[in-house]
Amino acid sequence: MLIIVVGVNHRTAPVEIRERLSFSEGAIKEALIKLNALPAISGCVIVSTCNRTEIYAATMELNDGLYDIWRFLSNRSGVDISEIKNYTYSHSLYDTVRHLFRVSSGLDSMILGETQILGQIKDAYELSRKQGSTNRVINTLFQQALAVGKKVRSETGIDRHAVSISYAAVELAKQSMGSLNGKSVLVIGAGKMSELTVKHLVANGVSGVVVSNRSYERAISLARQFNGQAVNFTELYKYMTMADIVISCTAASHYVVKLNQFRSVMEKRIEQKIFIIDIAVPRDIDPNIANLPGVTLYDVDDLQNVVDSNLAERKLAAVAAEEIIEDKLDEFMKWLSTQFVVPTIIALKNKTEAIKESELQKAFNRLGKLSEHDKKIINTLAGAIVSQILHEPVTQLKAYAVTPQGHLYAEILQNLFSLNVEGKRSENNIWPSNQMLAAAASDINCDFLREDINNERNCSRNQG
């Protein structure tokens, strides 16, 4: 069983191509049904966000699986299959698992370490699982990807450093004022940057939002999003006397907040401190206001310095994240290799054991009466010979199991020895039984496999 992915993201294709290859939630349900009906696909998940579309699938045939997905995307989008190949990336086995682990950890995102993608992957997986579009390999892959994403964030702190201008403003406010719970904010300007900054402030405890904009209608629209109040631009200084935080981001070509008028604002505040963030370019706030007692003023360059510093921290955290990913990648691939190698090893050992027992019985019959001691010695000798003969091919098969050609070696061994492999690929069953996997788990020395078996048993008990 092979795992593959075909995807497109902000680095490989322009937005007009990404739009045509994207899926709405409703479209994903129908697409999953069509994908699973394709001959080479045994299970799949579709991840579709604003910056990426990816189809993860389990397949027995690498080239057939990739081609089926390319053809599916081409038929659905109307984009020629040759263009689909040019704009998409594709991976198999190790590279697919590593890619998904990196995506879930935020290492493949436009903003390094962003957290939203983890929830998007979870939602995509749950949708596919509920649709019945996944299989055991896909389930285990995505469950581990979600666990890796959580582990990376908890152990490296890669998402704890603000790397957007709007969020950096909030971090500076928290550093300056401590808790933001119950604080009030006056927003000057009703553009996208103002909206993002207020959104982060409200998420961190700010409760009172007042919006002032030259277009009163736009002020009303933004204020409504946060259950706030819109005020006329002429009342700007009046409401400054009551705000704890001022965010300014307008398109004005001159100072919107001037020194002399603001000096009177501070006189009315009676030594109450104020925190001001000027995100506009050109600046909205007269920089001389920063010299007034009780004023903390940051402009966009100050915010950019914070972003640059935090991005450097995230890059350091990403190095540690890559190490976690590689460890978990090896663990998963050991588990995956057992899906086709263990049944072959068990079948080979069962066949040689049957031959040994048959030939021993013939030998004992010819030798006549033997003591139990003599039988034990002969039996031990025969077992040692069989074990030594099997040791090298079994060891080599385990080593080849984690390569893209691993399944071929398993099939060759099955054919050479005419093995009757339980769980061998058939129309209705491509998986070895849990009993077989459990019996081989200690032989493979794979804790991950044993944990998976125990989880399945527990699930079966709970469902029963």
UniProtKB/TrEMBL annotation:
Domain spans labelled Glutamyl-tRNA reductase N-terminal:
6-156
Q: Where does substrate bind?
A: 49-52, 109, 114-116, 120
Q: Which gene encodes it?
A: hemA
Question: What lineage is on file?
Answer: Bacteria, Bacillati, Bacillota, Clostridia, Eubacteriales
Q: According to the UniProt entry, what is the EC number of this protein?
A: 1.2.1.70
Q: What is this protein called?
A: Glutamyl-tRNA reductase
Query: What InterPro entries is this protein classified in?
Result: 4pyrrol_synth_GluRdtase (IPR000343), 4pyrrol_synth_GluRdtase_dimer (IPR015896), 4pyrrol_synth_GluRdtase_N (IPR015895), GluRdtase_CS (IPR018214), GluRdtase_dimer_dom_sf (IPR036453), GluRdtase_N_sf (IPR036343), NAD(P)-bd_dom_sf (IPR036291), Shikm_DH/Glu-tRNA_Rdtase (IPR006151)
Identify the species of origin.
Desulfofarcimen acetoxidans (strain ATCC 49208 / DSM 771 / KCTC 5769 / VKM B-1644 / 5575)
Kindly list the positions annotated as binding NADP(+): 189-194
Residues at the site labelled Important for activity: 99
Q: Name one GO biological process term.
A: protoporphyrinogen IX biosynthetic process from glutamate
GO MF terms here are:
glutamyl-tRNA reductase activity; NADP binding
Q: What is known of its domains?
A: Possesses an unusual extended V-shaped dimeric structure with each monomer consisting of three distinct domains arranged along a curved 'spinal' alpha-helix. The N-terminal catalytic domain specifically recognizes the glutamate moiety of the substrate. The second domain is the NADPH-binding domain, and the third C-terminal domain is responsible for dimerization.
